[in-house]
Amino acid sequence: MSTRVLALLTSLAIVPLLLGCATMPTAAPQSTTVAASTTIPQPTRTFAPPPTPTATPIVHVVTSGEEAAGCPAIEPAAEPTVDVLSPFCVVWPDEFDDERGFRVHLDYTPSGERFVYEVGPDVTRLAVPEEDMPRLTESAEQCRRRNAYTVQVVALRPDIEWRVGSIAANIECGAAGEFVERGAINFLGEPLTRWALVHDGLDRAIHYNEAREIVRGDLVFTIALVSDRAYERGAVVPEGVQAEADRILETVEIY
User: Fold this and answer.
1) What are the structural domain ranges in the chain?
2) Judging by beta carbons within 10 Å of its beta carbon (0-12, 13-18, 19+), is residue 222 exposed, middle or buried?
3) Which residues, 6 or more positions from 183, have their beta carbon under 8 angstroms from its beta carbon?
4) Which residues are CB-neighbours of 31 under 8 A, at least 6 positions away?
5) pLDDT in tens, 128-186
6) CATH architecture of the domain with range 55-171
7) Is the pTM of this model over 0.70?
């Protein structure tokens, strides 16, 4: 099973995370005598119970023949991968001959909503129902509930659920913009393309590998530069920040 690493650089700041451990000297045990008349104060701090899931997955079993209704006609990709096509059609490769079907997971990060779709064998696309799609044309509040999502496809094989792939996206509310390729860098020994989300001539966000997952050996990355400001408040990723992020990514090594 591959390990997912999510790298999200927000607020145009690059924050180093240092993990480590240290061995602290163990103090010698001490004994304390408490007089019988001493009153031990009761703790005043209370702890909240562990959080419970905010949403129960809504499961749809899709009727055979209706999976691709609304999906555009597409040619097979040169390098098959999980993708999302307009309006909201999930496509994936089928490299198996023994699957009994596929399961598609759609998770919205802001709202916690989760949708699961099950389709039959030899199916490679799914048109997400309109009521489950992002609400980009509605109010800002409704838009932000579903403007960040993850899609994962799993093959249901006889003895195992095999992960086919996934894709994640973060969509700006108020203006969609367009993706423009901005060259490539070297990341862990392989080229990595850079894509800018451009609106009004400004780079509002930078998505590496066009927001698709980046696989390096057993590791899977999703990397983006995203401003925490709205469009109308000056969301932009300056060239200097882009250059610094590229430099950092090109020096990443795995030991």
Assistant:
1) 55-171, 173-255
2) buried
3) 193, 194
4) none
5) 998 999 887 677 778 888 988 999 999 999 999 999 999 888 776 655 577 788 899 99
6) Sandwich (2.60)
7) no
